[in-house]
Structures are given as structure tokens and as C-alpha cells.
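Figure-free illustration: sequence to structure, shown twice.
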Amino acid sequence: MTELLGMRFFTNALVMCLLLSFLFGTLSFFVVMRRMSFLGAGVSHAAFGGVAIGILLGIDPFYTSFVFCTLSAVLLGKLVKSGNISYDTGIGILFSFSMALGAIFIALKKKYTFDLMGYLFGNILGVTSFDMMVSLATTAVFIPFIFACMHKILFMTFDEEVAAVSGVRTGLLDTVMLIFLAAIIVISIKIVGIILISALVVLPASFGILLTKNYRRVIAAGIAYTLAIMVGGLLLSYYLDLPTGATIVSLGTAVYFVFIGLNAVKRSH
């Protein structure tokens, strides 16, 4: 373990795991409670289109994927609010369109020297100091925002219409949350990958709900769970020579189902 801590890429990955555990552990609660879990899949796959635009134009894919994901998430939210489309329909269209667009842009770029697989499935070697700085900045803004607006967000989460009538600016809050969702997904792509990242949008809160119904404890449990599976998955992937993102998601899913089994046993006695 001491040997690993001496490696720059590993310490970078550990810092990212710590920061992402706070981000996903908190974000997941609101996504799951609002039954918008599939939205994470739609936005994460939109990142593929953004990455492909960056490859085609020769721009850092972080910037293009962030802009593309943010615009996609906000546009989808506006369309749903207007009543012109439902979330599941919109996400299904966004999901396929973004992947198709990405495939076209990559095909247009005949030759490229870019680690596309690292973006699709994660690559801890790709984590840089810039990634950590962006993650830290996002955490420093997102966590205080959540606690400052906690009651308004909860009100909107459980009864959006009544919240709007009561003076809560639900449209603005919803837009801000969608922007945070896009940002958190984009900054975590290098660890988990576009294909698998939607699991971290859903699993933390789903795990927390297995343990408690108190929302503060659900969030705390989600943060602890995310940190455990990310660090555990990171270590397992290193020692077993496995893909990091796939190992993290597989470990997280296994832990989740183990606790479902334990709860079932507890209820039967």
C-alpha cells in the first residue's frame, strides 16, 4: 500500500474518489427521490457526443463534453417542463442521438491519437491535477449550495406544484441541479467512464435507503458507500489488473445486493 501511495497517478485517483464520493453521495439522493435515475444515463451518454466534438475540433474533450452535457440536460428539462415531452421519451431520444452523433464525428476524424476507451470505460492514469482542481471547485460550490437550499429542494422533490405555489423558484432550482448533474458526470468520466457512470448516479441513494428513511442519514450513507466502493474498486483493479470503472461499478452492485439479501433475512426473522 505504501508503494501505491508513492505513485502520483494513484494518489490523484484517491483524491478524486474522495471528492466524487461527496458529489455522487449527495446528488444521488435528489435524483433517485425525483425518479430521474434514467436521466443520469442520458446525460452521461450525451458526454460521448461532447467528447467526439472535442476530438473532431482538436479541443480538450473536457470542455466540449461539459458544454454538450449541460445544454442537453437543461434543454431536456425545459422540454419536460413545457409538457411537450416526457422524461423517459426525451432521455431515450437524447441517449441514441448523442451516441450516433459521437460515432459520426469520430468517423469524420479519420486519424486521431486519443484514448477513447479511457473515456468510455475509465482510466485512472488519465486523472490530472486539473481534474482534481475542477472536482474540488465543484465540491466547494455544490455541497454548500445543497445545504443552503436543502429545504427548498426537498419541498420541490416531494411536491413540485405546491412548492411553486408557495414561492419556491422551482424552474431555477431544477436548472441549477441539472447543471450540477452534468458537471459531476463530466468530471468523473476519467475514473468510471461514460458507459458506466450512470450507476453512480443511482447506487448511493439506493443503498442509503436500504439502511434508513431519514434523508440526512441516506445522504451520509450514500457518501460513505460511494467512497468505500470507489477506493475498494480502485485497489481491486490495481491488484487484479482489471478496468477501474468496471471494477468500481461491479463492486458497488455486489455490495448493494448483499445488503438487500441481509435486509430480507432480517425481515424473515
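We now fold a second protein in the same way, so the two outputs can be compared directly.
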Amino acid sequence: MDKIRGFELVSRVEGNSDYKLPVRGTKNAAAYDFFSPISFIIKPGEKISIQTGIKSYFQADEGLYIITRSGNGAKRRVTLANNVGLVDADYYNNSGNEGEIILVLVNDGNLDFAVEKGDRIAQCWFQKVLFADDDKTIGTRSGGLGSTGMK
């Protein structure tokens, strides 16, 4: 059976129980929760980059969208640095990167934000992507975050 969509551990963390694949919290949850593989504290005004140890595969006409957990954003003012993360289908196992998802959390609140290993830190969902009739691409992906350039 061909894989359609899902999550895998990247090779550097396979067999390490600190890394947990995303899961939905309830039967009717729309999103999958990301769990922190480490404990950390983000002080007000600071940010932290978290290597999740997770990669995701899905169809070419889909994207994986990553957002802040609502309680963290609304109650604690801890959000993703890019607000909404978008993982493209060709990020998975491309020629220059295995496709590890990295979360950058920012503390815009007034209090320290403490996370224990295993806490939920972000959420994500798969969604169809629509392309224009005259769609054209300008290259191929080779690398990780920002690998398609800043221009």
C-alpha cells in the first residue's frame, strides 16, 4: 500500500523515546499536536528553535499547516515566529534535507514560558492546495528552512 499522508521520525532520532509523532487529542480534533522533545524556558522577548525530530509526507497537491496552540497564543502570548508554518510536499526527503520540521517559538508575553518534555507546543493539519490554470514552477527544492530563497 502506498503511503498517502503521515508523520515519521527523522533518521537521527529513530529509536529515541524523547521524540513522539504528532497525534490528534480527541476524535473530533482538526489538528495534530506536536510534542516537545526537550524541556526549556523562553524568557519574555526571546525565541527558541526546536528540532522536532519529525518529518511529514503527503500528496503533491497538499500542504501541512502549522500554527500556535490557541492557549499558548491567547493566554501566554507564545507564538510561532512565522505565525503560520507551511510545509511543502517536496520538503520531505529532498536532495539536501531529510525534511525535519523545526518550530521557532517566540515569547511576546511578560512571563517566562516553561515547557516540559512531552508538552504540546504547536498543532498542524493537512490541507489540499489549489494551483492556477497556468501554474509554472521556477526550480526544485534542495535543503531545509528557507531553501527556496528569500527573493
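Summary for the second example: The mean pLDDT is 92.
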